[in-house]
């Protein structure tokens, strides 16, 4: 079983490696074709008059800039979509913060009662007690009386 597992892994790696090599060969072939096209264009421009060479160079630059501009427009669109998504998330989080702040402005006695209820729930869930007790100063007489009884 162990040898079969290793053999299967080796075959998977070999297959991945062969696919990667094939992809790299295709990329090299595409680059060779592009280089040949550029060489042909360069040789053609050398045969042109100086004015025609300048015009051809300008056309090449215009084409390059146009392609770059299209790429930048795509990037801008993606960034704008991401910005909208982040703004929506920010609104949601701001609403949560406002709700939290509103809950913090409850009447102090009501908040204490609410926090005490939450503490009890948390203390029941926790299993690791370390011998410490958290309480409000104004609850100390009640706590002492309960401890004595």
UniProtKB/TrEMBL annotation:
Residues 3-103 form a coiled coil. The keyword Coiled coil applies. The keyword Coiled coil applies. Keywords: Coiled coil. This is Unconventional myosin-Vb. It comes from Fulmarus glacialis. The lineage of its organism: Eukaryota, Metazoa, Chordata, Craniata, Vertebrata.
């Amino acid at each position: 079983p162990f040898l079969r597992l290793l053999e299967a892994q080796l075959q998977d790696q070999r297959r991945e490696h062969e696919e990667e090599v094939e992809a790299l060969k295709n990329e090299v072939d595409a680059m060779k074709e592009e280089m040949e096209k550029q060489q042909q264009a360069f040789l053609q421009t050398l045969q042109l008059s100086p004015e025609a060479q300048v015009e051809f160079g300008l056309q090449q630059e215009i084409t390059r800039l146009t392609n770059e501009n299209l790429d930048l427009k795509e990037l801008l669109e993606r960034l704008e979509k991401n910005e909208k998504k982040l703004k929506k998330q920010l609104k949601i989080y701001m609403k949560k913060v406002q709700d939290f702040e509103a809950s913090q402005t409850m009447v102090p006695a009501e908040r204490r009662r609410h926090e005490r209820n939450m503490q009890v729930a948390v203390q029941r869930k926790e299993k690791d007690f370390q011998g410490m007790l958290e309480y409000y100063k104004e609850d100390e007489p009640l706590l002492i009386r309960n401890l004595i009884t």
